[in-house]
Amino acid sequence: MARSKQPGPARLTAAELDDLEEEIELLKVAYERYFNGVDRVPPRREHDRVKLHLRNIQRLRGGSTVIRFRSQNLKARLVTYEHYWTRILRQIEKGTFKRVLAEAKRREYDLQKKRAEEDGVPAAQSGVRVMVDREAGQSGIRPKLDDASAAARAVSARRPPSTGVDAKEARDLFKQFVAAKRAAGESVNGLTYGRLIDKLAREVPKLKEKHGDGIRFEVATVGGKVRLRARKRRSGQGAS
Prior knowledge:
The protein folds into two domains: about 10-115; about 120-240, no CATH class. Helix content is about 50%, strand content about 10%. The protein contains six helices and four strands; from the N terminus they run H-H-H-H-E-E-H-H-E-E. The protein has a four-stranded mixed beta sheet. Keywords: Coiled coil.
């Protein structure tokens, strides 16, 4: 009698890496909330979950070369973040760290993040901007993106809806944004999914303060350039 064939170990997929990247970026937002004094305790449980997820991924069989390369980059990104978080946590324990991040520290953090990215291009060149209008017509509101305190108002650091956009919608939005910029001949250097999550985490709370819930995002061409635009849903309109 032939022996039943035992299934081999699961293979690593792009979807698994999408989830890991999302968790890493949301964990970064959670630490920023703590460093800015919004949360009273550091996100240690969330951090442990991310590390466990990474260990589980490393046990999976490698997929394509691209997927394996991306997996190593995500691991390197988390290690870079962890070095920074550990140093700041030690300063907090010693009482030498100010809750409001100094500009020099933020520049250093941004530099470390840039080195962790695959392309190493400054975020200022990513072209991610957010405009907002209403279904009845444009309001002409263009929020600033350099408000450091906005990160402190980002909601729950564990689940993707904290950005105001669910995980699938965020990934689809990123793919559409990249495709539209390429079609328009615009550079996509430095444009990553993690940076899109950062922008949404900072901007959505401000948009909700001004316009309430029911904000949805779309890719649009404004002034000859591809932009992300936030729109107010009509009453009774569901998510697309």
